[in-house]
Specification:
about 575 residues; mainly alpha; two-stranded antiparallel ribbon; about 60% helix
């Protein structure tokens, strides 16, 4: 009997787990801090500020002091240059009746701005206006997102070790406090460096909170609903994505927006998360048996179920018994595992690059930024739901779903190229949304697929390495919009199309894992015969047949540390898609 078998008695998703998952669902809605940069770092139209003209309308200021950026279009003004005139010498009447053709001569020099006036028709303020990230300093705006993503990388890589060491619940509070400290530094920042440090700390805390709650939810529910709960948390993220646009539409000041959307809820959630229990699985593994039994009893009481009579933690088999843990280098020692590692790493990199590039550069799309952001989040919800059915489809499964969604993302990106060149703005935005939904599905698939492809010996290392590549891509993503498109308008679409198409082709090299047992050792992964599931009326037959084939192979047994020959363990079946009831 392993730990997952306990949920057959106490309930896989009873009232107790529903309450916990709901609380985690709400906390996940407020984990979309990265997307807030769409509004916090939004570009604002600007022009040189002339103190002598401060009391005049913005239109008159531009007419008097700012040269045209395009001589063929008098409505376009230069954002970084002004005429080098002494406007204090002109009377109010001369300013009000300014004749540009007479007052501005061919010999009139232009000078660079030292101060700027910002158009507040869309946003009252952003970090662009707070720190004057314009006219040669634009890269500092994208750098803030990169620094935040570096913080996410630190949070992702540290949260596993921290939560394994001190427990899920304590780690959750630690990262929540880290996140609040980041807000306290970033909100009142008077210097760019202070803002950068704050955003880094926020990224670390936000990633730590998200991943810890994700693991806690997975360990508190039974295996039959684990995939559905995991996808539901992805849907919560998508809801939060859309809500950021609604809140930003109401609160146009970036400091007030951050306080309302992230700071306030974070304080509230810190209080609410007191209600979360510790993971009974973690307690059992770390020898705190009485506490684990107490939580299991609490779950069964609320769920109106019961544990087996005279049940003790000692009745459970130790998970992963006899499996030797490997290191990163072992991922590349055997040919098949090396190929799968490279393909999965590239898939994660592509998913993260395209997803965050499209998300963080929504402001560069045609149309209203608030509507585009709302739609960008909403398209993820049906995409994630559809993904659940495609993953378990006997006709598609993991392999074809991953490649197919990549191909759709690549095709939509390539279609955007001529649409951008010929200024079909609305159509280009629609195709960008199609690409966003497709790559969102790819992201959901690759999470499940990775856990099933890597054997137990290197599963944690393999997924950790893939996640690291994804974080690196997310650090590059902020530069894939406006900065890249300044070279050539559809440049980013070409890059996205190439990466997505290549990822789709490489995905076809992977074996289908649907309905197959999880493997424990690298030797098993090298020798196991991956076969396509057989369609039949009896749902149990295909899985039983594949397991029989598996046991007849030379990899059917492996030596444990005690020298006894045992069948490979499937106790790490963290996805309900791997259960026999899922054909």
């Amino acid at each position: 009997m392993n730990f997952d078998d306990v949920y057959d008695n106490i309930g896989h998703l009873g009232t107790y787990q529903q309450c916990v998952v709901t609380l985690i669902f709400v906390s996940t809605i407020f984990s979309v801090e990265a997307i807030s940069m769409v509004f916090v770092g939004a570009e604002m139209a600007h022009w040189c500020r002339v103190p002598a003209l401060a009391n005049y309308s913005h239109e008159l200021q531009r007419l008097v002091a700012v040269p045209w950026s395009n001589l063929d279009d008098p409505s376009t003004y230069h954002q970084c240059q002004m005429y080098g005139l002494m406007y204090e010498r002109y009377s109010q009447e001369e300013i009000l009746n300014w004749n540009r053709s007479k007052m501005i001569l061919e010999t009139t020099v232009t000078v660079s701005c030292t101060q700027w006036t910002y158009d507040q028709s869309v946003f009252v303020s952003t970090i662009v206006s707070r720190f004057n990230l314009v006219c040669g300093s634009e890269y500092l705006n994208q750098l803030i997102s990169t620094i935040y993503m570096f913080g996410v990388l630190v949070g992702v890589t540290s949260s596993g070790a921290v939560s394994d060491k001190i427990g899920r619940r304590v780690a959750l509070f630690v990262y929540m406090v880290v996140r609040l400290v980041g807000y306290a530094v970033a909100f009142p920042a008077s210097h760019y460096a202070m803002l950068a440090v704050g955003r880094f700390v926020i990224g670390t805390g936000t990633a730590g909170v998200f991943l810890t709650t994700y693991v806690l939810a997975a360990e508190l529910v039974g295996p039959r609903v684990r995939t559905a709960v995991g996808v539901s948390l992805q849907i919560a993220f998508s809801i939060g994505f859309s809500l950021t646009a609604l809140l930003s539409y109401t609160v146009r000041d970036e400091i007030k927006y951050q306080m309302a959307s992230m700071g306030g809820p974070a304080v509230l959630l810190l209080l609410l998360l007191v209600l979360l229990p510790e993971s009974p699985r973690w307690l059992a593994v770390n020898g705190r048996k009485e506490e684990a039994i107490k939580i299991l009893n609490d779950i069964s009481t609320v769920n109106l179920t019961s544990l087996p009579e005279n049940f003790t933690i000692d009745d459970l088999n130790e998970e992963g018994n006899g499996v030797q843990r490997k290191n990163f280098v072992d991922l590349f020692k055997s040919p098949k595992l090396r190929l799968r590692t490279l393909v999965i790493d590239f898939s994660w990199f592509t998913c993260s690059l395209v997803y965050y590039a499209l998300s963080l550069n929504i402001g560069s799309l045609s149309g209203d930024v608030f509507i585009n952001t709302t739609l960008s989040g909403l398209v993820e919800i049906p995409a994630n739901i559809i993904c659940i059915f495609l993953l378990d489809s006997p006709y598609l499964g993991r392999r074809l779903t991953l490649s197919g969604t990549f191909f759709i993302a690549g095709l939509s990106s390539f279609i955007c190229v001529p649409l951008t060149i010929y200024n079909f703005g609305t159509a280009s935005t629609v195709m960008a949304m199609v690409g966003k939904a497709s790559v969102c599905m790819s992201f959901s698939v690759v999470y499940v697929y990775s856990a099933e492809l890597f054997p137990t010996e290197v599963r944690h290392i393999g997924i950790g390495a893939a996640s690291m590549f994804a974080r690196i891509a997310s650090m590059i993503a902020p530069y894939m919009g406006t900065p890249l498109n300044s070279v050539w308008a559809p440049c980013s679409s070409v890059v996205f199309g190439c990466f997505a198409t290549l990822a789709g082709l490489l995905g076809l090299l992977l074996p289908e894992t649907r309905g197959h047992p999880l493997l424990d050792t690298i030797d098993q992964a090298e020798q196991y015969q991956w076969r396509k599931p057989v369609l039949c009326k009896n749902k149990m037959a295909p899985v039983e047949r594949r397991n029989a084939d598996y046991n007849m192979n030379t990899v059917g047994t492996h030596k444990h540390s005690d020298g006894e020959s045992k069948s490979p363990s499937n106790d790490e079946n963290s996805n309900d898609a791997n259960q026999c009831s899922r054909c």
